From TrEMBL:
Name used for this protein in its record: Helix-turn-helix domain-containing protein
Pfam family, one: HTH_17
Residue ranges annotated for the Helix-turn-helix domain, each copy included: 16-65
Record InterPro entries: HTH_17
Biological source species: Blautia caecimuris
Length: 74
């Protein structure tokens, strides 16, 4: 997804998200997005060095109200 593209709706998102998409959706830094995708329980999958997240799995994870967001324990 283009870094400058504005996210207007769920339908605008690709079926498979990358770290930059997660960063934009959540409004967090790049470092926090990488910390998040490596957190236990986060629905990321890896293919070599690529980290991807199913759009459906990501929003289901968010709906659960997971507390694995980096820095949330402060």
């Amino acid at each position: 997804m283009n870094d400058k593209k504005r996210l207007n709706s769920y339908e605008d998102l690709p079926l498979v998200l990358d770290v930059a998409d997660i960063q934009r959706i959540m409004g967090i830094s790049r470092a926090s997005a990488y910390e998040l995708v490596h957190a236990p329980g986060f629905p990321a999958f890896r293919r070599g060095r690529l980290i991807k997240v199913s759009k459906i799995a990501f929003f289901e994870w968010m709906a659960k109200g997971s507390e694995t967001v980096p820095g949330s324990d402060k």
